[in-house]
Write a structure and sequence with these properties.
alpha/beta; 20 helices; 499 residues; elongated
Length: 499
């Protein structure tokens, strides 16, 4: 039987780091925390992505809060997707509690209550910094994948983008894109056919229907100007702490299409914008995607491929992605295999399907001489989790059932007045919340069509020119005088006279 001393030495060796780190809590043996057996995550490996999973009510959100706070304190900016609306409390310090003090005494780290610099973002009509992107920034490939188009339809989208580039037509919002599609098979059909080939009306009709479906989920608010600059997610406050950017998504929980559209555009923009980091000692930005199953739930194969590619590539830019969901099986295997840090809260075994999921989850963790992983997964309490990370050399750390530290900020939402105060202080609200609707493809094509219609009307209204045709009917006298018979007769008479 393993002794506490053996276990302590095992954890201490596995979680010793040379560089900076975040302390998650103390490792537990036989359901008891071993004081000072600290589970530490090296900052160097936080761009290797991660997963926070567990049944409802087991403490996933508080774990996310702990990670966000500690990253901010280390000067690393964070972005959180807040679908339940319970993360705004990060802006205010925790009121404290005797149970929190007891927990931290068991762990062996002091508890300090504090608030953090917070920026409130919004995709919808909710208050906050408005996040927008133009259709042009999406590009034909990403837009086609979001709309789940066929190869032929994707080709048409590419032609539309090419036409707009060639004719200097800005594609800013969805009404611009719809207008060009309608023009391609309407009054501009001849122009398109001549320069780009024939475009099928049935294909453009299908694309239009899919755009309308996206609009119904609120995408018309997202597409447009002023475009959000992703560099503004990496701000540091005057005390050297990274900003925690909280994207409020409480009113789009039932709109997975809009959520996945935004996430893909954000990740693609970050990948295109941020420089290569190489082997950095800390991440540039860490993104937490709460309720991550919403991204994958209705995603097409093409969309999943796009997500997988971005997850693989974006870490070289110093970006860490963390998926928060109830069950690891919510995340596709291709993405799951890319995740370095796994924090697994308790799972419940109510059905045969649940037991199968627990067995699969246990197999994703390193083997341990101190735990029966399947048993531990169902016996963890609130605020406890199995943790497996990567050390500074990229090797898996020992599996540790961990008593997690408590958040330093408030474990509740801000009041309406507190939220209003945070938003009013924001410099980004002033920068992005002015709505701009400059001349773009919609207005330019409307003007072009109107001009063509006026020209056609003018041509129609012009009076018809009538020209008198010379009469082809010949005078009968002239006809006789010029006939061959008459001329021959006259010549005959003259001939006789001469004789």
């Amino acid at each position: 039987m393993a002794t506490k001393e053996d276990f302590f030495a095992h954890i201490e060796k596995g979680y010793t780091t040379k560089g900076d780190f975040i302390t998650m809590g103390a490792a537990m043996l036989e359901n008891e925390a071993v004081t000072n057996a600290l589970v530490k995550i090296p900052l160097k490996t936080l761009n290797r992505h991660g997963l926070i999973a567990g049944a409802t009510g087991t403490g996933k959100t508080k774990t996310l809060q702990v990670l966000a706070e500690n990253l901010s304190e280390k000067g690393i900016p964070v972005m959180l997707m807040d679908l339940k609306g319970d993360l705004s409390g990060l802006a205010q310090p925790s009121p404290g509690h005797t149970k929190i003090d007891e927990r931290h005494e068991k762990i062996g780290v002091p508890f300090n209550a504090k608030g953090f610099p917070v920026e409130i973002l919004s995709l919808s009509e909710q208050d906050g910094v408005k996040l927008r992107a133009t259709v042009s920034e999406f590009g034909p490939t990403l837009l086609s994948r979001i709309l789940d188009l066929t190869e032929t339809q994707t080709g048409i989208v590419a032609v539309v983008f090419k036409y707009c580039d060639d004719n200097k037509l800005p594609l800013l919002d969805l009404k611009d894109f719809k207008k060009v599609l309608q023009y391609a098979t309407g009054s501009g059909k001849a122009e398109f056919t001549k320069d780009y080939g024939r475009i099928s009306t049935s294909s453009t009709g299908t694309i239009l229907r899919k755009i309308i479906e996206l609009e119904q989920q609120g995408a018309d608010l997202f597409f447009g100007e002023k475009s959000f600059d992703v560099e503004d997610l990496t701000r540091i406050d005057e005390n050297g702490r990274g900003y925690i950017n909280i994207l409020r998504l409480t009113d789009i929980q039932d709109k997975p299409k809009l959520f996945s559209t935004f996430m893909l555009s954000l990740l693609a923009e970050i990948y295109a914008t941020f420089p290569e980091q190489g082997d950095s000692d800390r991440p540039e930005l860490v993104l937490f995607i709460d309720e991550a199953h919403l991204i994958f739930k209705e995603a097409s194969k093409a969309l999943l491929d796009q997500i997988e590619s971005i997850v693989k590539l974006i870490r070289s830019k110093g970006i860490g992605l963390y998926f928060v969901t109830q069950n690891p099986t919510d995340v596709p295997n291709e993405v799951l295999s890319q995740l370095g840090l796994k924090i697994q809260h308790a799972l419940r075994a109510f059905t045969a399907r649940d037991r199968k999921a627990i067995k699969l989850t246990a197999e994703n963790y390193p083997e341990s001489n101190f735990y029966d992983t399947k048993e531990v997964l169902t016996s963890l309490g609130i605020g406890e989790a199995l943790i497996s990370a990567l050390d500074e050399k990229g090797r898996p750390t020992p599996l540790a059932a961990t008593l997690l530290r408590a958040p330093m900020s408030r474990m509740d939402v801000l009041t309406a007045n507190e939220l209003k105060e945070v938003i009013n202080k924001s410099s980004l609200v002033k920068k992005y919340n002015e709505e701009i609707d400059r001349e773009s493809a919609y207005e330019i094509l409307n003007e072009k069509i109107e001009k063509a219609e006026k020209e056609a009307e003018k041509e129609k209204d012009k009076p018809k020119k009538t020209t008198r045709r010379a009469s082809t009917r010949q005078n009968p006298v002239i006809k006789v005088l010029t006939s061959a018979t008459f001329i021959r007769g006259v010549l005959g008479v003259l001939k006789k006279v001469i004789r």
